[in-house]
């Protein structure tokens, strides 16, 4: 799986198979992936459980036990951050391929999120990116012309 942010293009809603055009083993076969794309409405926090449900369905037979639950948790953190901190629409993209899962939430505000040390007096705030940083196999922020994409990757078979 590529380790750089992707983005752009038309937005399809729902999960669907795609042909990545990449070679699965270099011997002429094309790797098939499954992708979920979902537009997230401005400040619509109902999108968080809906995105988790759609991701759960996408990952039904994916990875070792517990991997899809971690993916759901991290996805809900990224979706929540985009909706709460940007006051704009966002786009969720999840791509499952032979090597693992990549989830990206693209928003249209330039400010970069940063993990911060949670304050015990701050309730549940400030823990999202710390969770992403500690549980994802890779993660990052990719600036775009308008906004950014915050992404993470999970290997299917990692412990």
Describe the protein's architecture and organization.
The structure is a single chain. With 159 residues, this protein is of the alpha+beta class. It has helices at 47-58, 67-86, 128-135; strands at 14-23, 30-40, 90-97, 100-107, 138-143, 148-155. Strands 1-2-3-4-6-5 form a 6-stranded antiparallel sheet. Helix 1 (47-58) packs antiparallel against helix 2 and helix 2 (67-86) runs antiparallel to helix 3. It is globular, with a radius of gyration of 15 Å. The chain starts with 13 loop residues before the first strand and ends with a strand. The relative contact order is 0.19.
Compose a concise summary of this entry.
This protein has 159 residues and is of the alpha+beta class.
How much of the residues is beta strand, in percent? 25-35%
Strands across the major sheet, in which order? 1-2-3-4-6-5
Biggest β-sheet: count, sense, barrel?
Answer: 6 strands, antiparallel
Q: What helical percentage do the residues reach? A: 25-40%
- Outline: globular
Instruction: Tell me how many strands there are.
Output: 6
Radius of gyration, in Å, reads 15 Å
Please write the string of helix (H) and strand (E) elements. EEHHEEHEE
Query: Which parts are unreliable, with pLDDT below 50 for 5 consecutive residues or more?
Result: 1-30
Q: Average pLDDT, to the nearest integer?
A: 78
Secondary structure: elements and pairs:
Layout: E1 14-23, E2 30-40, H1 47-58, H2 67-86, E3 90-97, E4 100-107, H3 128-135, E5 138-143, E6 148-155
Antiparallel strand pairs: 1-2, 2-3, 3-4, 4-6, 5-6
């Amino acid at each position: 799986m590529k380790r750089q942010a992707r983005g752009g293009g038309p937005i399809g809603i729902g999960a669907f198979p795609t042909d990545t055009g990449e070679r699965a083993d270099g011997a002429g076969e094309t790797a098939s992936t499954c992708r979920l794309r979902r537009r997230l409405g401005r400040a619509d926090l109902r999108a968080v459980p809906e995105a988790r449900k759609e991701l759960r369905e996408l990952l039904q037979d994916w990875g070792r036990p517990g991997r899809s639950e971690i993916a759901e948790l991290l996805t809900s953190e990224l979706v929540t951050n985009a909706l709460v901190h940007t006051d704009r629409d966002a786009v969720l993209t999840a791509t499952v391929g032979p090597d693992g899962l990549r989830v990206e939430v693209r928003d249209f505000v330039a400010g970069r999120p940063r993990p911060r040390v949670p304050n015990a007096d701050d309730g549940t705030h400030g823990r999202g990116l710390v969770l992403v940083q500690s549980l994802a196999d890779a993660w990052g922020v990719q600036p775009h012309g308008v906004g950014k994409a915050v992404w993470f990757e999970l290997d299917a078979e990692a412990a």
